[in-house]
Amino acid sequence: MGEQPIFTTRAHVFQIDPNTKKNWMPASKQAVTVSYFYDVTRNSYRIISVDGAKVIINSTITPNMTFTKTSQKFGQWADSRANTVFGLGFSSEQQLTKFAEKFQEVKEAAKIAKDKTQEKIETSSNHSQASSVNGTDDEKASHAGPANTHLKSENDKLKIALTQSAANVKKWEIELQTLRESNARLTTALQESAASVEQWKRQFSICRDENDRLRNKIDELEEQCSEINREKEKNTQLKRRIEELEAELREKETELKDLRKQSEIIPQLMSECEYVSQKLEAAERDNQNLEDKVRSLKTDIEESKYRQRHLKVELKSFLEVLDGKIDDLHDFRRGLSKLGTDN
Q1: Burial (0-12, 13-18, 19+ Cβ within 10 Å), 99
Q2: Which keywords does this chain's UniProt record carry (predicted)?
Q3: Cα–Cα distance measured from residue 320 to residue 322, given in angstroms and rounded to the nearest whole number
Q4: How far apart are the C-alpha atoms of 308 and 314, rounded to whole Å?
Q5: Residue ranges of the alpha helices (H) in 264-290?
Q6: Which residues form the domain of 97?
Q7: Measuring CA to CA, which residue among 40, 33, 31, 27 is closest to residue 7?
Q8: In-domain check, residue 59
Q9: Residue 294 within a domain
Q10: Domain contains 233
Q11: What is the pLDDT along the chain (343 residues), one digit of tens a residue?
């Protein structure tokens, strides 16, 4: 019937460094299937794991093996036939516990199978010695008669047992050859693993150099980001200053509107002045013959002219102030436009 899987799990596979005997070397790039197999024909147990087309674990379990938990998710065992130590890294503590329990169970089964095989070997050896001693008795029994029939039957049984023992020896020789071939494959796999380790070391060196280059690039980018942040802060301050200037501009425009409203009164005043002048001229024409009234009116006219001159002076002063305000507003707008262009 061949080998049959009796337990299967997934784990990261490691092997001890053959040079240092301390460091672990990864035997698989990722988690792979690890299985217990039972060989019905040979009555043996093995742990087998394959990564693609590569056999990374082929360990026959013997009674003297021990599986040791070294952490919550890692365990190991030594295989003297493969001359190495295997390590398994699991994704959870429960998986490690199940694997360890199965290892102990298979180890006990392997011990029982070994004891049974040893008993068969001892029994076959005893039967072989008895057959060699009783070989001459068969010749005597041919002449001894019916009394020795039972002894002959026993000798036949011993011969059959000897034949079975020879068959078992041949089977063990085949198993030994299979183990040698497995060891050869494992040796080849170990050599390939060593070559892979060297390649990984070179790749690690390349990755480390690339990492240093990326770190330097990150430092440069961080410096550029700092400069950008400083520029953003400067722009924020300029925007705040522009908003303040725009507020001042709105205030100036409001003040200008007020001044314009006040300037609208000037034509009315001038109209009134012209109207007064016309009245005065009419009064002068009407009162030419009335000297007393003319003198009185002249006095009134002089006072009116004085008020008119005073009003014109005030109007002129007001217009000068208004022109100054307008000039200041134009200068302010030009300064604001220049500041916006520079930003």
Answers
A1: buried
A2: Cell membrane, Cell projection, Coiled coil, Cytoplasm, Hearing, Membrane, Synapse
A3: 5
A4: 10
A5: 265-286
A6: 5-116
A7: 33
A8: yes
A9: no
A10: no
A11: 568 899 999 999 999 998 888 899 999 989 999 999 999 888 899 999 998 888 999 999 999 999 999 999 999 999 998 899 999 999 999 999 999 999 999 999 988 888 877 776 666 665 555 454 455 444 444 444 555 676 666 666 666 755 665 565 566 667 666 666 655 676 665 677 567 667 777 777 776 888 788 888 888 888 888 888 888 888 889 889 989 999 998 999 888 888 888 877 878 878 887 898 888 888 788 878 777 876 887 888 788 889 888 888 888 888 888 888 888 888 888 888 888 777 6
Whole-angstrom distance, CA of residue 116 vs CA of residue 150: 29
Residue that the structure tokens 């060593």 belong to? 194
Whether this model's pTM surpasses 0.85:
no
What are the structure tokens assigned to 148, written together? 């020795």
Q: How many domains does the chain have?
A: 1
| Residue 36 covered by a domain | yes
Residue 186 sits at the vertex; the CA angle it makes with 181 and 190, to the nearest 5 degrees, is 150
The two three-digit tokens of residue 247, written as one number: 């507020």
Helix (H, G, I), strand (E, B) or coil at 43: coil
Under DSSP, the state recorded for 20 is: T
What's at 154, amino acid-wise?
E
Phi-psi region of 21 (alpha: psi -120 to 50; beta: other; left: phi over 0): left
Burial of 306 from C-beta contacts in 10 A (0-12 / 13-18 / 19+): exposed
Q: Are 15 and 86 in contact (CB under 8 A)?
A: yes
Q: How far apart are CA 329 and CA 248, in angstroms?
A: 10
Asked if 148 and 141 count as a contact pair (C-beta separation under 8 A), the reply is: yes
